[in-house]
Design goal:
heterodimer; A: alpha/beta; Rossmann fold; six-stranded mixed beta sheet; 22 helices; B: mainly alpha; MetI-like fold; 2 domains; 15 helices; globular
Amino acid sequence: MAGKQAKTRPMADGQASSGKLLDIRNLRIEATVYPPGEAPKTITLVHDVSLTLEKGKVLGLIGESGAGKSTIGLSSMAYGRGGVRITGGEVILNGRDIMKAGPRGVRALRGREVCYVAQSAAAAFNPAHKLIDQVVEATLLHGTANRAEAEKRAVALFKKLSLPNPETIGERYPHQVSGGQLQRVMTAMALCSEPDLIVFDEPTTALDVTTQIDVLAAIKDAIRDTHVAALYITHDLAVVAQVSDEIMVLRHGRLVEWGGTRQIIKEPRQEYTNALVSVHEIEHQEQQPGTTPFLSVKNVTAAYGGGHVKVLKNVSVDIYPAQTLAVVGESGSGKSTLARAITGLLPPEQGTVTFDGRPLANRLADRPKEDLRQLQMIYQMADVAMNPRQTVGTIIGRPLEFYFGMKGRERDKRVAELLDEIEMGKGFIDRYPAELSGGQKQRVCIARSLAAKPKLIICDEVTSALDPLVAHGILKLLLNLQQVEKVAYLFITHDLATVKSIADSVAVMYRGEVVRYGSKSKVLTPPFDAYTDLLLSSVPEMEIGWLEKAIKGRRMASAGN
Amino acid sequence: MSSPILRLVAQRILLGLVLLLAVSVLIFAGTQILPGDVAQAILGQSATPEALANLREQLGLNDPAWLRYVHWLWGILHGDFGTAQSSGLDIATSIGTRLKNTLFLAACAAIVAVPLAIVLGLIAVRYRNGFVDKLISGLALASTSFPEFFIGYVLIYFFAVKWQIFPSISTVDDSTPFLERLQAVVLPATALTLVVLAHMMRMTRAAILNVMQSAYIETAELKGLKAFDIIRKHAFPNAIAPVVNVVMLNLAYLIVGVVVVEVIFVYPGMGQYLVDHVAKRDVPVVQAVGLIFAAVYITLNIVADIAAIVANPRLRHPK
């Protein structure tokens, strides 16, 4: 059986067990859930997972959300997040079972033998204390160094992680430091007490690609120089391939495949691993722009705070019927602000938005209902974009009533049709958003926007919060719907793979300006401008050694300039 | 201190002053609307019309209302609250000693109640939903649910009558030495503490529990900190703003709401003074006391606002 084969250690060449740092055997983790309107029930999050990790090695844990990656990672610190309980198996760290260590024993190992780096450092740092106090806290608590030594160690780590002003950055508060820098400070915090193991829980997922590559390189160097072992948790195979020695693929709390990094990405044995490795690719033939765009943004400038903070500078783009314009850039580049300007949520200071040859009113409140109908939006967070107390039928039916005055059976029939179009079926009509998966929620949002029969749907990072396979499904659906409904998309994303999959034309934004604009093939073909080059070269590729090559390329480029 | 903080603080103080002015108008208008004639009240039913007219002229009651308001406010700004109609004494002098007494009692109660409530709140969070938490909440809520006069008499019954540890009547004057004064306020201060404890404790608990959901609490837990240290070091500093708010509301209550307790223990404070003069329909005294109470309330709320501003690291250390 393939599954059984995968469970044996990949390096079965008689390695001595003396180098073994972490040995998890038959781990079983459960949680009690309270579904609305039902009796509480116990569900199993992790089923009989075993793994071993040697000193100084990095094991990548990979899988979609709900795969149990974080839960397994945190079990190495005897920690269950929320009502999660470790109900079976052994977690042996440095030769002793930490499940039997008792509260005092567990506290003694947390922050000393095992440290944790969270996904969002911005949330994981206490806003009330200086960074340095938080970085040295565990070191002082466990008495491994006195204050002066610990601070010296912290500064050395700040330097190693290439933080600016390593001597003084610790005097700052978390809100005074950028997200990418905070993530590095958090890594320094984990390394400061010189632990044997660090659990990295999606440490670069919340960062822009251009920042991610630097943080990733810093983490990798730090791991190599300090000989610390690591569990590296992520959903991004390309990222984990850069830092880990071995990769473990998880799904629904079960082990799928475990092997060396090269084997997993080059010769996956399991079908699911294969699907993960080969996702991303959708063949989408670029369409040539038509003769006249139906929506034109001309020289739009917009600002927040009464004109103080310029967020859009002289932006011009065109959208053609039934085509997709992808707007790509890092956070703060003005992508979403462009959407707000087009929809009238943020009236532009200068410039015009023309729709079907006539200018649209600047302010949302001044636009007639018909204009509102023609421009619809879908958001990144599908679950907060829906009223949790309304059924799917009510949610999708609302624009039908509002724009077309449909009622009763006519409305229900159209809702059922729309549910068919998004491949869900009318069985979902009485469900509440809480009863849907992330992908299904996003589909309902798509159906709601389609219900208005718009000419343009603005998609703001609609696949960013979804797992790769689910996101893949959503992109395919959007492309199919474009064929059927002849709707155009303004597709805002930070992910270049998504751009390649869906766009006909592309606008690259940087600090409020469009730095590169044209058909997809033109934008993605050299010669590049400096920023687009940086953006493209920062996207992780599923290839061992990519990180080193990319970093080297960037150094050469900056030396050459 | 940086400029955004100074600006916000100045803004709060200015708003407070405007509010106080508005309240003074309301107080003045309110006492004008009350039926009855001050001159009549002073001279009694048997006064001759000439005497009444003379007194009205003398008191300025024939002036239009706004002019009387301006005179009244002008006097207060110069420390002159007028004279009490019932006794002919200068109000500012009478209030001076009584305000001192009330503040002394409130301070004694606050010194015990505020730290106790916060510590109990921290302990309740540490053992949340367990026996200790329920015990603390139960006792605190019970003590708040009993009316103050009931608590007052229970205290008098046990500590003054049965065991004779503390006096039942808390009479003090300017010559009372400090220790005796302290002994005199033990029972009323205890009664007040029991009244305000639960509100502050429950609010501290709720505010900290709210913060306990944050990711940085997990970070602290994964560093190996003890549960109580996590609450004290990592949760409490981020819950200061709501806690200070409720503490200030209760401090205001200790000063403004002590009427019943002062009357029970015959303590010569503002509350007792106010009750006496309401009974005598002494309008200038009621106005003066009302204005002082309003000023106390507004000041403490401004302090709470400023504390919340200063406690926010984003405002204290701008980018």
